[in-house]
Amino acid sequence: MGHLSRIGVAIDSELLQQFDLFIAGQGYENRSEAFRDLIRERLVSTAVAAPNMDVVGTVTLVYDHHVRLLSEKLTDIQHHHHALIISTIHSHLDHDTCLEVVVVKGKSGPVQKLADLLISCKGVRHGRLVLSAPSLNRPSGKPPTHK
Ligand code: NI
Question: How far apart, in Å, do the first and last CA atoms of the chain sit?
Fold first, then answer.
């Protein structure tokens, strides 16, 4: 963490009461950390929406592997976009159901298109893309330099 600044925030008492209940349920021990996390979450979710932002993330897929050619199709799509994929984890949940987590890295636009392709395949029961922007967590906001 960088230099700490203290701020005063005026907030409606009822809203604050709801916030305190919410953060207690989430396991926060104090408001400051909860405020910081909410601000970071908002900054990250706004940043990753920009198509040119460098992002990392996961595409989580739950699907029925008995659906004809679905496993092959998901694998084909991943090979076609191999430059955006770091790794894939596959877990056979039960007799019918597979869980696949595809770890992605690249520009936000192409990564989101890849996720849409995978999630929209017929037979995928549930799919979700989660993105983060690592550059936002560096003090300079600039990409790391590799030596
Ligand atoms: Ni499986």
Answer: 24
